[in-house]
Amino acid sequence: MDGTHMTTPLDATHSNASTHTHSSANSSAKSKWNLHDTQWTLSLFGTAVGAGILFLPINIGIGGFWPLIIMACLAFPMTFLAHRGLARFVLSSKNKHADFTDVVEEHFGVNAGRLISLLYFLSIFPILLIYGVGLTNTVDSFMVNQLGMESPPRVVLSGILVAGMISLMMGGERLMLRAFSILVYPLVGILFFLSLYLIPSWQMPDISLPEVGSFGKTLWLSIPIIVFSFSHAAAISSFVHVQREHYDDLATRKSEAILKRTSLLLIVFVLLFVFSCVLSLTGEQMAQAKADNVSVLSYLANITHNSFIATLGPLVAFIAITSSFLGHFLGARESFTGLVTKQTQLGAKTVDKIGVVIMFFAIWFCAVKNPSILDMMDQLSGPIIAMILFIMPMIAVYKVPALHKYRNRLSTLFVLAVGALAVFALIYSMIK
């Protein structure tokens, strides 16, 4: 005998049964909620909680009490269903390693892939302009109101701040991003504490029913801001890729479970903060905050005589805007480089340097001009994000065979309708 073991049919049956049992047990274990899922929930939550929520109370609060209530009802289905649709879209690829752009090219062709890549860049770049303005106004407001200094020349202050941010990124972008990603969670804790701290100063809101026409218009034009403030679309592609590697056939189910919990956590946290800010300020004060073009925390710091809010408010606003700026700058930089290198013969390093210079001067120019931050969210970022997050995946439902099972569902039609309203809000604001 040479020691070789001959496998009998009975052995094979036992082996197959054992493998099947093991596979089932493994699948059952993976289907349960675990640490991996919790970590991704917190990661997506941290992606969504940025500087956008610091301006959300102002926009919603100006409209009065009832738009706030309607937003509270719509925020969860808008956030969860849209991000679930985008995740399903990325998972519909035949290629397990495909990213967002690859999936678009697979389903819609190369030209569409390039167009979507351009839209992706255009969804990120205006956010950098917004944060350049927000950062300058936050620091200027702090210097004048909290430190009692004279307002410095805006062209000098904005130039130093923007150059400083970009220099940090050029010096060690990965390290900076890691540092600021760690800061997300203390920020969340501070914002939560501030939300509770403001409760004693809540005022009874005006609950009189508004005129139907003006109410509908206010709500409609608020949709892009809501889309912008709750979006974590930038992380969905990498999130789905990891879930596919980790869970294989369970990727869709687990992705949806994680996104559901992320959306719930996000909505509860953000709505508490928004309600607390709105109920602590009058409509006139909200209008003044918009006119001053500062975040709600900076405005609260300026009007209260509380040293805690006066110090902590601008600091939190500064860290939130800075961390969001760095993350979005990295995304815009990579997106610009990829877009231009595909269209030209230039090398990636050359394109990267050109992109950094262009973005520096564009952000600096915008920070000097000081346009309305909320108007920029309304008219630029919100609608473009809506195209990628709400409209494109829903069109894919009717075009891609793998997604046909989601056709004509109420959730699909709802997401498509919200996306269309956000884009039409852009068109309306441009022609009015």
Q: In words, what does this structure look like?
A:
This protein has 432 residues and is mostly helical. It is built from 16 helices and no strands. It has one domain: Amino acid/polyamine transporter I. The protein has helices at residues 9-31, 35-48, 52-62, 65-91, 100-108, 110-146, 154-197, 212-230, 236-247, 251-280, 283-292, 296-303, 307-343, 348-369, 373-399, 410-431. α2 (35-48) crosses α10 (251-280) and α6 (110-146) runs antiparallel to α13 (307-343). 42% of the residues are buried.
| Residue-averaged pLDDT | 80
Distance between the termini: 91 Å
CATH hierarchy, class = Mainly Alpha
Q: How many distinct beta strands?
A: 0
The computed structural class is mainly alpha
- The count of helical stretches stands at 16
Radius of gyration: 24 Å
Strand content: under 5%
Low-confidence stretches: 1-10
Explain briefly what this protein structure is.
The protein is mostly helical and 432 residues long. 81% of the residues lie in helices and 0% in strands.
